Amino acid sequence: MKRTYSIIVVFAVILITFYFAFTQKAMGDSSPKKNYCIECHIKLNGKPRAVVLEWENSVHARKNLECQICHGGNPDVDDAKAAKDKKTNFIGKPKKKDIPEFCGREGCHNQALVQLKKGPHYNSVLKIGSPNCVDCHGDHNIQQSTYHIITDKTCSSCHSVEYSRELVNSIITIEKNIEDIEKSLEYMNERNVESKEMTARYIELKSYFHQLVHIFSKQEIDFTKKLVEVEIEYLDKELQSKIASIKRLDVIYILTSVFSIGVIITFTIYIALIRRRRAKIQKDFQSR
Fold first, then answer.
1. 8 Å CB contact between 202 and 183
2. Alpha-carbon 229 to chain mean position
3. What are the pLDDT tens digits along the chain (288 aa)?
4. What is the residue-wise DSSP string for the chain?
5. Where are the domains of the chain?
6. How many whole angstroms separate alpha carbon 25 and alpha carbon 236?
């Protein structure tokens, strides 16, 4: 009996040891790997350090896209020379004229590059290196593509202030309208209202808009702008109609609920009065 008990204890200890060893390994595996590009640059001064601080506030950082996504190299090696070896496809600072291809490579912003090549800016990039992607989006502090990243000053270095302002204001107005449509669609989805067709049209609308902001050809902009405005008007009208119907149903539901509660309360009071009256009659009858 004593021997059996000893075997059970030893077996239990072995199981517990294996359990903790496995748990520690699993925890170790789940911990984030060190990126030695970041670890090294953050200890430096000036621009080499600044790029990390800028990146930390970027849309790339929020999506866990680190240095090697753009620059290649091996971030797992704690050795600058080995990390930047030719075999690791390391790219440092690309030339200005190479930036569109650098950002628009397959798997990254390829569609934006396709649209850029349709407009006049691409030839300008090949000749003088600008305007390229980083002129609007930034290089390391890359922000999500919204109207906040572009101003008339961005364009007026080459174009007239009037033209730049008109163009930027058009983009801002269109994007704000698209944001309103997005909010309306989110509201409908929250209410479980069928919106499959309108969601598909909304996605297509955003695609047209992205063409507009990357082609930047006056002719293409005018055509796409009209197309986008017509689609916005249709979607806004349809969505507002459906939302109005939802709100009417909400009012009917509230009124019905209030009426039902009122009926229940009235009926409860009526029953209580009837019972009280019966109790009084019985009491009077018994007292006689």
1. no
2. 24
3. 445 555 555 555 565 665 555 555 444 444 567 899 999 999 999 999 999 999 999 999 999 999 999 999 999 999 999 999 989 999 999 999 999 999 999 889 998 899 899 888 999 999 999 899 998 888 999 988 777 787 778 788 888 888 888 888 888 888 888 888 888 888 888 878 778 888 888 888 888 787 778 887 777 777 777 877 888 888 888 888 888 888 888 888 898 888 889 889 988 888 888 888 887 777 767 766
4. -HHHHHHHHHHHHHHHHHHHHHHHHHHHHHSPPP-HHHHHHTTS-SHHHHHHHHHHTSHHHHTT--HHHHH-S-TT-S-HHHHT-GGGT---S--GGGHHHHHSSTTSSHHHHHHHTTSTHHHHHHHH--S-HHHHH-SSS---SSGGG--HHHHHTTS-HHHHHHHHHHHHHHHHHHHHHHHHHHHHHHTT---HHHHHHHHHHHHHHHHHHHH--HHHHHHHHHHHHHHHHHHHHHHHHHHHHHHHHHHHHHHHHHHHHHHHHHHHHHHHHHHHHHHHHHHHHHH-
5. 94-142, 159-250
6. 54
